[in-house]
Write a structure and sequence with these properties.
5 helices; 434 Repressor (Amino-terminal Domain)
Length: 69
């Protein structure tokens, strides 16, 4: 489960539909990623990190620092 992608989405006041369109995936697929019922492909993790301008390590909870170094 990746709770930080939900936090980032909600903090940006986006719906699952809006972010899924940005990522060029279905809302259903994004919902699975957010709920942890499906693994997130690395290319999607990178796209999410780029979209929110945070590090992949932040999304993966390897650090609490949002900002890129």
């Amino acid at each position: 489960m990746f709770p930080r992608i939900r936090y980032l989405r909600e903090d940006a006041d986006l719906t699952q539909t809006q972010i899924s369109k940005q990522l060029n995936i279905s809302q259903r697929a994004y919902s699975h990623y957010e709920n942890g019922t499906r693994d997130i492909p690395i290319n999607i993790i990178i796209s999410i990190a780029d979209f929110y301008q945070v590090s992949v390590d932040y999304i993966l909870e390897r650090t609490n620092r949002k900002e890129l170094l």
